[in-house]
Amino acid sequence: MMELINTLISTMMSNQVSIPLAEPILELLRDIPLVGEMIALILWRPIFAALICPGLTVGGILLLFFPWIERKLCGRIQWRVGPHEIVWWLGGLIQILADTLRFLFQEVIVHKDAHKHYFLQFPFLSFIAFLLPLLFIPAGNIVAIESPYAIQIMLALICLFPVFILGLGWASNSRFSFIGTVREAFMYFAYEVSFIIAILAMIVLYGTSDMVSIVDKQSIWGIALNPIAALAFFIAAAMATSRLPFEIAEADQEVAAGPHVEYSGIAFGLIYVMCYEKAYVLSGLMTVLFLGGGSAPYIPVITDLLAPLLGDLWGAMWFVLKTIIVMTTLFVLRTIYPRYRLDQGLSIGWGAMLGLSVIALALSLALVAGGVIVI
Amino acid sequence: MKKVMVPDQSTGEKVIRHAAAIGVTMKESVYPLTATVFYPKERKKMPDNLRGYLMFDLDKCISCWQCAFICPANAIRMKEAPNNRYYPTVDYGKCIFCHFCIDSCSGGALMSTKIHDVAYKDMDEMVTLTEEMIEPPEIIREDKKTVEYVIDKKDLHLKRRKEVDTLLVENIPPVEIPMVSQCVDRGSCLACRVCERVCESGAVSSSTENGIIRMKIDTEKCTGCGLCVKECSMQILRLVRK
Amino acid sequence: MEEGEQDRNIRILHSGVFSPLRRWGAKWSLWPCHFVTSCCGVELAHAFACGFDGERLGTLNMGISRQANFIIVEGTITRKMARALRIVWEQMPDPKFVNVIGACGQRGGIFWNSYNITRPSEIVPVDFFVPGCPITPESLLRGVRAVQEKIEGKERTTIKFNKVELPSGGELEERTVPTTPKLFAPTPEIKLDVKRSVDWDFGKELKDLLRKGLKGLYESITITDVNRIAIRATQEKFMEVAQRLKDIMKMDHVKNVNVIEVPHERKYVMEYMVSSYSVDELMPVIISLFTEIGREAEPEFPSLTSLWESANYSEREMHDFFGIEYKGNKGMNGKFLLPPEVDTPLRKDFKIEEEQYVFDEEAPITTPIKLPPDLVMPVPEETLEAAEENDEMVACIGPHHPGSGHLRWIMRLKGDAIVEIIPDPGYVHRSMEKLAENRLYIQNVPLFERANISDPFNMNLGYVRTIENALKIEVPERAKYIRTIMAELSRIGAFFYDCGIYSLFMGHSTGFMYAWAIREMILEAVVRMTGSRCTPSFIIPGGIRRDISDYVLDMTDNFTSAVHKRLKKYEDIFIYNPVFVARTKGVGVLTREDAIRCGLVGPFLRASGIDYDIRKVAPYEAYDKFDWEVTTGDAGDCLGRFMGRYEETKQSLSILKQAVDVVKEMPRGAVISEEALGEYKEASRDIKGHLYHAYGNLVLPKGEWTTVTESARGTVLYSIISDGESNVPYRVRIITPCWMNLRGIIEASKGERVADFWAIYGSFGYFPPEADR
To answer: What are the backbone angles phi and psi of residue B208, rounded to the nearest 5°?
Structure first.
């Protein structure tokens, strides 16, 4: 028994996240029995990735503050200010906390026509399911599960998303959620093919589907190598997260938020953050595939100073920063575009985007075959 | 006649238009043309002619009832004061702030203020009696600054000043047009004395001589309110220039 | 309202261990479910647009009831809407709050004695009342602050009055309270064809032509005014005359369907006003064709829908109002505009409550209103059956839906295609025509303005022009120009209003904000001119209430050039946005023939290629003195309609600029005609102090007085029938552009996709309070 624990601890100790800055404190804590083990556990790379970064903690913080960033930025673009009065000297930073608390303590209404159990289960199920792909995303060199088939598994998980949304709409059993659900299903097929082909183009280019080695191989960022694939991926991400101009399934003015129309209280709260979760996962994937993941650009003085101090967190920090930028771009789309009609959305998916992604694939093949890029 | 052409966007033009839309967004995210007034903390400066809550000057009121008559929402009703005269009360649950009452008040007794942001917790409180309209009301204010919208040739600007705007405005008295009531056909008078009973200024009086009631209008006392003209059942009274 | 509902929310918030967190969360996260029922919705939009940005306070507008926790009731809750209010309130999760803004929702405001209003406070528990008509954005936010404080535990009215003791010691003993100022003629004489000698040569020609064409069919043909001809016919030959008018005179659309009840003569006067879009010379001419029928219990009349499709909805409306059965009109089963429990309200024996002028503590201040009995809003049986038969889906959009506006659309859908849409209007029907019959002429000025507060000056101007026409009042030059400035400002404002709503319908919130920022500039100019942001009531018979300052003239002048900076950005982000163009181009096409058949008006008619603008056809105010062009288009699709209005707005800006330049040069002088003022001539620069004296006893000459005015969304027609004795109108008929355009929306939506409906709906700039009146 002791042996097993000792082996486990030594496995954990051999694969610890190193943070030189925090090392003095950690050193002290490590000597305390139990706490030391706890810290070893948390700092164990796979656990650290799942629980802290890019997993639950960073994800949670992002979910809490990203809507604020979005609302502030959109407000700014729209000549207003966005949330402000709640703590005015922080510019309304904790607005989403108030919203969350409100949702948490609000009544959850299950209407008569709903399929009660599914109606309540789906928001919670989907919340968890949406977090799973995060296990495969490396933040710098921290990753929960390293696998040569990481991208394939992620894709499979991402393609599960719409199933949950269909479930939400179906369990609601109302007219608008019905129309919205059908729209969601249509859109799903429209973006999925080109989404997969665009990723395929990058796999061909890098010659591997292991996320960590993809990051390592990006001496030049993927977006520079194959911008067409990046564009196709970005548009597909906008479609997958139901962002304008493809916010067709949830069109507020048309089908009154579609699948979500009947949800209230914390159930809606979960759905509300779900779209941010989705965006987080897809932006993370985009960062890894196209923006060099956690690789940091060299900035004189700052890099020299901070990189050794932060250790593994340095890469993680850059990963989160890039992800936020991608997410912001994704969300700012709503200030730029009105909404497409369903058939237009479909024809873009099956037409222009499919074309784009095929060209991207061809480009990758050409680059690899032509030996322009030797990886 | 001008024919409007519907834009027909070619692929090239579409790309330019996409770029233009994205360009606007990028520009606004850096230098936005924000036009927001932070209301509870600062107050937009309203012009002096803003139609807000009413105030009432008892001394100038001639109890002519015209405010009550003209009020399109029937928000103004006359209430009898202890001195036997009728003064207006306003029901803000009905008032539409058209200020027809102020424009009808020939004595200038009704005045405007710039108060317009009020919330009541109860509908019964919305009836404002005469005695409450004489002194300026107090409202809950959180504003420390005043913002003014200034439109110049180029754009709309917000001019912020660190001062608290006063909500009371100077009252400009109306042009005086002296009118008096006059009987044009004394022979038709029924001596019903409705003109006397309706007169608030006490200008109409009656005397009995040999069993015949005679009506008299004191042109000095008459305010020209026109109530007797309106009420006269024989329609023999007219308002004429003094 | 049930027992114990009033303070349930506060009880919930204050219970439990997490009470402070609950309260804090609720306080900063009040998501209003905008219950845009009428005018105040415009100001609500301003409060949440960039001018004031309600989102600062954590209140994010949310159209969906399940996710909101705060209702802001904006204005009138009609009997039809009362049901929706209760349903929406019950759909919301606890704890929830309700604010009522605007006088309509309190004691009714200007509609206080309407037959179709209810009081929200009797339907749902209300937390705060915000007075105003409409409220200002500031007061709306004050209401939000008050709710926030209430959640914290400080419930208070935000105004405190200081009481002053009134003087005592009266000397007047015998007193009579004055009676009502309204004078009703006991047996009014109603005559629609009062001859007026006018200088109108073409009219004489036309009269001869009509005489020949209608030989032996008519009873009399009278010229009642310039461009107005009245034809009296017998009931038997009515159809035939109408047919001839259509065939020979090319009268292709109906402008107005009217019924006048004359109870003491036991008759109804049935009237149709027809005009022509196809012949240029006939465009300004309105021919009124009328006949009299006996006043029976269930009167019948042949419908003219077979001749003129455009008469359809107005006939249905008259069926609701007077109970007249139009034989041949398919919509005669059931109510169209009214709720089921109101019957034939425009008949003279249907009495509404009278004004009280004396404050009486015994008498109730709030007049009791019986609430509608149930919460059912049924869909017509036939529709459901037809849908069932053809394997279609029926979806109801509205009356409370983020993209419905304030009426219900019943959609029959086959997959993603619209088979048919059926409008269910009347959710903001506030019975203006009935109220107008019971108010002084001058009191109707603010009343009619509230038909459309996004375009108030034109509504106001139309009514006032009708009175001026009847009384032959010539308006002073300066007032004419200022009125033109106001009308154009209002037209531009209405365009940006529609732009904002259109952007929202397309899911583009930035477009909404940008358009509303421009509107904020316009309203700033309006408030400085008139003292009110949306409901100026500034144009009165004979001129305007008072002159406007030089400062505001400069401001308006600056506006005409300053607007371009923001307009350019708006253009880039919305108007020429490829997604918007893709959504609207080629969608909802109405051909020239369709447009005439549906009787469309205004820019939407012009977008289908018909060169008809009243400002050019029959110029009024100072429009003939400026250099401008009518804009037309050929496309007839959504984008065409929108671009047409956009171009028109540019023309309006040019008119505005020219008008301001003229007024700046003009010496100050009278702004109210001295004829209108009578004895009170000194008030011609400022009416202050003499409004009632000068206008209280206004009486129009006997006859029917009709004017058409080009408002932002098209022709607004006012028709006043006066008996020549009463100082209240006998009957006022107002036909608003949106009411006429309703038909166009239906026609254009047929066969389009579901999402296209919003593209079509938005392109028509439909404003429900205006349509329902």
So the answer is: -110, 120
